[in-house]
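Chapter summary example.
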Amino acid sequence: MSVQKPTIPKGTRDFGQMEMARRNYIFDTIRSVFRAYGYQQIETPAMENLSTLLGKYGEEGDKLLFRIQNSGEKAALAPEKGLRYDLTVPFARFVVQHQSEISFPFKRFQIQPVWRADRPQKGRYREFYQCDVDVIGTRSQLNELELVQMVDAVFGKLGVRVGIHINNRKVLTGFAEIAGAPDKVVDITVAIDKLDKIGLEKVKEEMAGKGLSEQGIAVIGQILSLEGSFADKLGAMRQLFQGGSASGISSETGLKGLDEVEELFGLIDAVGIKAPVELDLSLARGLNYYTGAIFEVKALDWEIGSICGGGRYDNLTGIFGLPDLSGVGISFGADRIYDVLTGLELFPAALGQATTLLFAVMGADELRYVLPIARDLRAAGVAVEVYPDAVKLRKQFEYAERKGIPFISINGSSEMEAGTVNLKNLQSGEQKAFKASEMQKILNFLK
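The structure predicted for these 447 residues follows.
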């Protein structure tokens, strides 16, 4: 039998003990912020019916769905299930399916992996975790504000400087209307979504390839080239949407989007946000179900693309038979956040320290002596290991060093006779002996 080289699929990763400690640090930080705003956790299956997933992410998104091959009697038929592409569509399905069991507005968060059949590259994986937070059943922009506040709080706790970019899907619809191409809003949005990657000229070429007129492309180019403060951009956009562009076409939808943008930025100004917040007219986020505010968050000190994004959707549940139920949510990309924290060396050093105290073992009698002490320390909340074999002390010290264990306890016949516990701080070299019954003194030494 030949020996098989162990590998994993491209676009996936193993996570060892240190990586898991760091990932849990991210998850716990995000959870704490979500819960502070009244959101509660749910989970949905890894796979959904393909009918649930198809048509919700645009043509390009559908191509990235992992389809699950049928088995048994249905093996020859077309796949009926797929791995979830995101957490928002399964959430909408969940809301409709369980509508009689939940209270609206319904605030939930979800931390689970998603899968995309994408080409693996730096910062882009085929399997990755999303941390989603959504509220559904209200149109109030207080919810958009809370999303911005949660983004600010999460990255503040993690020590990552971010920029928050905001646009509105109604504004993008306005682009298409004043460009004379209201039926091509999806094509325009998909093209604009690539602006950072391919540049304005290539975006114009893509729109031309979709049948937009030269005048329409010029109008959109004018919009994407706007600069200045929030007030400057807002004023210029109002003029364009009131018929001031080269096309002379006005857009009521675009003006409504600007009203929503102005309201949201007013709320943001009222509460104060540490992170810079910008009206980004080039922000498109090419998911078909967005209808209002859209968000994207980027790290300011590490190049990796967006690490957080989301938006408002007015009728996602309508696809599943519950129309006119507006919701808004945002997703934190845990894997990219991990890469940013690693690159900027922002993970706390103590995360690698799973064990506080190692009991070295000299022999069978010494093992029986320290086991009750280890039990009591664990009950008091101390992470304790007992070395499993009576080997040379040098090997046991090396084990403690490799694992970053800060304290070691070596107890022989003299400690057993005296009923004491010998403790050594491996960083400072300080060493003390305590009565085994002096648990509080032992705990104080281990702090």
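To summarize the output: The two ends are 53 Å apart (CA to CA).
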